[in-house]
Amino acid sequence: MKRRTFLGAAGAALLLGSLDLPAWGRVDSNVLLAPWEGDFGGVPPLDKVRPELFGPAFEAGIAAYRREITAIADNPAPATFANTLEALEGAGRPLTRVRRLFSIFASSMSTPEIQAVEREWSPKFAALSDEVLLNPQLFQRIEKVYQSPKGLNPEQKRLAWWYHTEFVRSGAALDPASKKKLSAYNQRLAELFTSFGQNLLADEENQTVTLSRPEELTGLPASMVNPDGATVIRNTRSSAEPFLTFSERRDLREKVWRMWVSRGETTNHPIAAEILRLRARRAQLLGYPTHAHWRVEDSMAGTPERAMELMEKVWKPAVARVHQEVADMEALAGHPIEPWDYRFYAEKVRQQRYDLAEAEIKPYLQMDKIRDGLFWMASQLYNLDFKPVSGLPVHHPDVQVFRVTGPQGRHVGYFYFDPFAREGKRSGAWMSQYRMQEKFAGEIPPIVSNNCNNLKSQPGQPVLLSWDDAETMFHEFGHALHGLSSDVNYPSLAGTDVARDFVELPSQIHEHWLGTPEILNRFALHYQTGKPMPAELIERIRKASTFNQGFSTVEFLASAIVDMRIHLEGDRDIDTREYESRILAEIGMPPQIVMRHRLPQFGHLFHSDSYSAGYYSYLWAEVLDQDAWLAFKEAGGPFDKKVAERFHKHILSVGNTLDPAQAYRNFRGRDPEITPLLEARGFPTGG
Fold it and tell me: Is 555 a catalytic residue?
């Protein structure tokens, strides 16, 4: 469970009668704090957002939230589930609304004005979070409810456990002097997280490689070339990686590679070092030997040692596979392979060995068709229907909105799709929850979004995706389905608010459906002929599915191992440049590969606490997803209705209402096994 700025997730309206709080009229004068308008609980007023509104909205929302917290903590009546935990679930709704709006703009529409607001308010929200989490009267009431579970149903007991765990792990039991020190750490960390992310965004936006001569374009597919002027390679993964795959110009590949792996190099090393030092001190203050022990405690892994054990099991066969891949590439290239050569020659070897080229696949992967394939998959597996909606407010003209319905036309939620890269949008792909599902404040449906950084095509041409980018769309849509399928009472337990190494199960398992004949035959249609992908091409893709798994596994695992190792170091000064280099040498990192995320650009670790000491989660979740995928294969195939129904019932819909290991056992009938993961990556299974 990630540490978050603490805000009750449900509605203030529920509290007005029982707590005699002031009405919300004054707060609603700021449009960002007002209840969202429209059917089905309303939608975010994205068309009314202006940067100058956020400060006053935050101030008013915080003041109202403080009044609610004071009323809950100082309530003279004995603590009960209703007057304490349900009251907390109802606290802070207007502030939650405005913070969700700000999050959308900070990640997708960032400007100097938005960044200034973020720098000012991040430490203030850290202080507010501590003000709540370290409130002794409030914690005393939570503890009384937690210690007296009689009469509570299972979900209510889980909520009591959740609140108690959140408060204890955040320092509620500390003495006043330690609480003061802890709060200072958290506020400084919030400042550093913001600086790290903004520095990284600046490098991604301001650094490019411009190709203005025809000879610089050798090998590039037409979809990458600007026919009307210079072709610009942006400092984003969606731009740099295709160039490294296709460009015949080795000198330019090196130039683009160095630009890409140097993001944050001049600004973020000292920030990362200070973050590491403060995290270590915070963990010790909370009673843990290291930050890694604190972070992993409430995950499925439970301890850093268990997470490291899994990574080490996969690391050795992955490195051995890389050595084979490099030997094959060097035989073809006739010279030693450097990091800027790897993708280029891997593509050449794939063409030679499997008669399969990325350029042969890409014409069949039109972004709009792949999106339609996502929706069709959801309809076949979970009886969900996605229909476009016009007229709802959006934050950019590229954003598409879909209404999601279930059987008998029941409204399920809204899905926002923001597919393209643009200035002010952070790199990568992610899912966001604009609103959590709940039943506590009435039937409140979820609103979720998927955000990608696909490159726009030339006018009149479709957007063509690489296989990896299409797979990413299925991955993020898995997160969206997790949020949309939530069926719980309390918003703090809803949707994707689950253990970090469990949350990637729904995303990663849905990647598998891209490669099914049912999807490819219907939606992998050639952009010129309209014909489906030929069966023999699908078969070649299947045969090549374990190709280059050494590279993809090692670049990920190197990042995950360095993440865990560096967060096990404790309170000492760390030179992050030296540390990264030394640990990679210790574990035998092949020199032809660089970490997927080097430390000065590792936003998962240093833009928040979110994935710190937790990047291993993707591998842990892959053990689950490969084992779960086997359940479909053992039954009637990828669209087996009974298995899909079990997955929806026991995984997608339950949120955090029960322990994730038990949720998986309820679905699978047993604990997961690692063998399907090793087989899927083409690694030895040990017999």
Answer: no
